Amino acid sequence: MKRMSNGFLTLEYVILIFIVVVAILAMRRYLTNALSGKWKESADVFGSGRQYQPAVTKLTVTKQ
């Protein structure tokens, strides 16, 4: 009877790990979007929200 108990314990751990992996894979899209948003937010700080366009963007140099 003890051997059957150990088998069930192993099966429970396998099922638990499977559920955790499935949950992480299901949330992958949300995690990717959150990471992309933070990356864009930190990049916008350097450009002050402006985007470089080769034919349109003009460089302004100020001396202090």
Would you write up a description of this structure?
- By secondary structure, the protein is an all-alpha fold.
- The chain has one domain (2-47).
- Helices cover 70% and strands 0% of the residues.
- The chain contains two helices and no strands.
Instruction: Sum up the overall morphology in one term.
Output: rod-shaped
Number of helices: 2
Q: What is the string of helix and strand elements?
A: HH
Biggest sheet features: none
Helix content: over 70%
- What fraction strand? under 5%
What's the mean pLDDT score? 80
Secondary structure class reads mainly alpha
First and last CA, distance: 85 Å
Our Rg estimate from Cα atoms comes to 26 Å
Poorly predicted sequence stretches spanning 5 or more consecutive residues? none
Number of domains: 1
Strand count: 0
Task: Produce a short descriptive summary.
The chain has 64 residues and is mainly alpha-helical.
